[in-house]
Amino acid sequence: MYKIIEKIALNDDVDLFVIEAPLVAKNTLAGNFVIVRVDKDGERIPLTIVENTDTSITVISQKVGFSTKMLSKKNIGEYIEDVVGPLGVPAEIKNVKKVIAVAGGVGAAPIYPQIKAYYKKGTEVDLIIGASNKQHLILLDKFQEVCKNIYITTDDGSIGEKGFVTKVLQKKLEENTYDLSIAIGPVIMMKNVVEINKKFNLKTFVSLNPIMIDGTGMCGNCRVTIHNKTYFACVDGPDFDSDGIDFNELIQRQKYYHEEEHECNLRLGEKDD
Amino acid sequence: MINRVRMPELDPNIRNKSFDEVALGFSIEQVKIEASRCLNCVNPRCVKACPVNIDIPKFIQQILSDNFKDAYCTIYQDNILPSVCGRVCPQEKQCEGACVLGIKTESVAIGSLERFIGDYCLENCFYKDEKIENNNKAVAIVGSGPAGLACAAQIRRYGYQTDVYEALHEFGGVLKYGIPEFRLPKNIVDSEIDRLKKLGVNFYKNVIIGKTLTLDQLIKEYKYDSVFIGSGAGLPSSLGIKGENLNGVYYANEFLTRVNLMKANSFPSYATPVKIKDIVAVVGGGNVAMDAARTAKRLGAKKVYIIYRRDINSLPARLEEIHHAIEEGIEFKLLLNPVEIIGHNYEINKIKCQVMELGEKDQTGRQKPIPTNSFVDIDVDNLIIAIGQSPNPIIKKSTPELLCDNWGRIIVNDYQTSIPGVFAGGDIVTGAATVILAMGAGKSAAIHINKFLRNA
User: How far apart are the two ends of chain A, measured CA to CA in Å?
Assistant: First the structure.
C-alpha cells in the first residue's frame, strides 16, 4: 500500500498526487514511469513520474477512463494498492544547445522532467504548450523556471493564441533554428508535430503511451511499429525517435477497449464523455 | 489387476462455459484403491524420473497405511508445492511415464495421489513444523515463480534470511499470470505460498530487480550474501509476420495475464477488459496454447481453433490438456503455419496459412514440418500467439557483466552466474520449460548457494 501525501487538483479533470514510495523514488530518472493499481480489483495503468524526492514520487493523472476516475477519488492520507517502478528507459538527454518542446494537454506532465533535465544541462528550451482552454493549462509556473520562452495555445483562445500547437510551431521554426524537438501529448498531436518538424529537418523525440499491463516486457500489449519492426513501449521506450513510428496504428490500438471503457463508466453511474 | 482410477471431471459442456476447476480430485476411497496399485518396486524408476526425486513409493505406502500427514511430509521434503505439481506436472513424461505398470497396463496415477495429499493437508490446515536454526547470512531471491519458491524454501531451511522479490502485485509468477484458474485454482497457489511464509520466508511485491533495485544494489547496499535469479521466461516470441500488431491479435502472455492475473473474465467487477469475439485461432501446440484456447472458449468464443504446424502426435502439450481441449470443442487445424495476418481498419479478420507436410526427423525426434506450395485463408476475429517465450531481459540490461548466451539465457556453472555469489535457475537459464523443472533447478541452486556460503 502506498500513501498519498499530497493531492492538488490542477483543474476539474487533472490531479497531481505525491505518493510515498521510497523504493520507486530511489532509482528514478527523467522519463521513467510507474504502473499504478488503484484498488484490489483495479487495472494496471502507466503514469509518468513528474518529479521525485528521496522518498516520494509525483504523478499527474487526467480523468479519462474508469481507473483514472477511481484514482481521482483518492485523497490525502489514503492509500493506493500498488505502485511499481521506475519503469522504462530514462530519456536520453542529448548534448544540444537549443530544444523546441511541444506539450499537448496532460502531456505537459511527462515533458516537464525532460525539459528540467535539459535545463540543468544548460540547454535552452522553448516550449509550445497547448490545452483546450486556460483552465486546462498545467504546470505553467514550473515551466517558467526551466524554459527560455513559453508560447501558449488554447482551442478556445481563452489564453494565448487560439488554435493548435502546430500553428505556432510552424511559425517558430520559420523564425528560429533548433537542434532538436521533443513532443508529448495526444498521438494525433505528436504525429502532426513530427510532420512539421520533418519539413525543417528537425529530429523529434516523442513519448508513447499505448495500453500496458505488466510494464516489464512480459505481455507485449504495448507494442508499437517503428520502420516495420515491433518495439515494446514499456521496456524499449516510452521515448522514441519519431522517425518511422506508425502513429495511425497506435491511435487504433489505444482505442481497442473503448466500448469496455464505456461499460466501466456506467458502473460509476456516469455518462460516457 | 485393478484398473487405473479415473479422476472425476466437470462435464465438458458445462465446464467450457465456466472457470471452475475441471479435474475434481480423488475421494479418499479412490485414493486408497489407486495407491494399492503401486508395486512398491525395490528399484523405483518413478523416483529417478521425477525432476525433484520425490520418494514416491514411500508416500504411496504411507497413504495405504492412512498416514496422510506423513505422506505429505515425505513429498514436502522434496517438493514444496504438491497441490500445484499434482495438477500441472507432465507426469506422463516423468514419474508415470517411468512406472513399471505402464509397460503392460496403465501406470499408477501418481500425480493425482500427490494432488490429493497436498489438498488434504491444505484443507485440514496441516503443515510440516520445521525447526530452523537461523544463521546470520541473507539471500535474495529474484522472482516468486516455481524456481524462486523452490529455492527460497530450501535456502530458508539452511537457516538463511530469505527475501523474495516479485515484480508483479501477486506472488507465484507463471502460476498466477500464466496457468488458468480452471487448471490451477489461485487459492491453492496462495495457500502453498503461505506455507513458505510460515517457514519464515519474507515476500516483497512490486520490486523489479534491474529497475526498482539493481543487482549491484542488492549486494552492495542491501548486503545480501548471495542472490538467486529465477525471473523466468517472460518475453513472448513473435511470429515475425505481417499484421502481428493489428487489434485483436494477442500474445498468449497478454491474453492469459488479462484473464488469470487481472481477472478479465469477471469484467466489469474487475476493471481489466479482454476482447474475444466469435472465431478465435490460437497458434502453437504447447500447454500455453491449450490454456489460451480453452480460456477463449470459456469467454464465449463460438469457434476456437488450434493452429499447429505439425501433426497431432507431435503436440508438445500435456496429454490431459489435449484431451480436455478436444472434449471442450476446440478444433485442431494441423499442418498449417500462419504466414500473414490480414485485417481491415487495423483490426484482424483473416489469417493466411501455408500448408505443411512432415519430413525427416529432427534432433528432437519429431518429424520436421516442410512448407508446401498451397495456402489457405481462415476467417478469424482474434489470433492468440502461443509459440513460446524467451528469458526476460530486464536484469541483463541493467547488469552488463552478467553473461548470457545468444538467446538471452543466463550462462551458469553449477547454477552460479558469471558474477560470483549470484546464482540462477529455471526458465531464465534453460528457456521456457515446465514448472517442475524450474522447481528442481531452484532447489539444486539452493544446495550450491549453501556450499558457496559455507566456504565463504
Answer: 31
Spatial separation of the C-alpha atoms in residues A107 and A233, rounded to whole Å: 16
Q: Which CATH superfamily is domain A2-87 in?
A: Translation factors (2.40.30.10)
| Chain segment B152-187, per-residue pLDDT in tens | 999 999 999 999 999 999 999 999 999 999 999 999
Give per-residue burial for B236-275: e unless 16+ CB within 10 Å, then b: bbebeeebbbbbbbbbbbbbbbbbbbbbbbebbebbbbbb
Distance of alpha carbon B118 from alpha carbon B93, whole angstroms: 21
Q: Is the Cβ–Cβ distance between B141 and B148 less than 8 Å?
A: yes
Number of domains making up chain B: 3
Q: Which CATH number does the domain housing residue B24 bear?
A: 1.10.1060.10
Kindly state the average pLDDT of the residues A39-54. Answer: 94
The amino acid sitting at B389 is Q
Q: What mean pLDDT is reported for chain A?
A: 94
Inspect the interface and report whether the beta carbons of A220 and B236 lie closer than 8 Å: yes
- Grid cell 523564425 is found at A175
- B355: CATH: 3.50.50.60
Ordered DSSP codes for B1-47: -PPPPPPPB--HHHHTT--S-SB----HHHHHHHHTT----SS-HHH
What cell was used for B243? Answer: 499484421
Nearest to B55 by CA among B72, B74, B68, B73: B74
Q: Are residues B346 and B434 in the same domain?
A: no
Q: pLDDT digit string (tens) for A205-264?
A: 999 999 999 999 999 999 999 999 999 999 999 999 999 999 999 999 999 998 888 887
pTM for this prediction: 0.94
Average pLDDT, chain B: 94
Smallest CA–CA distance from B239 into chain A, residue: A230
Strands B161-165 and B138-142: parallel
Quote the domain boundaries for residue B301: 238-387
- Looking at this predicted complex, what is its ipTM? 0.93
Interhelix angle for B56-64 vs B68-78, to 10°? 170
Q: Say if the Cβ atoms of A84 and B206 lie within 8 Å.
A: yes
* Nearest chain A Cα distance for residue B291, angstroms: 16
Q: Is the dihedral of CA B107, B35, B435, B52 positive or negative?
A: negative
Distance from CA of B251 to the nearest CA of A (A): 7
Q: Is A65 helix (H, G, I), strand (E, B) or coil?
A: coil
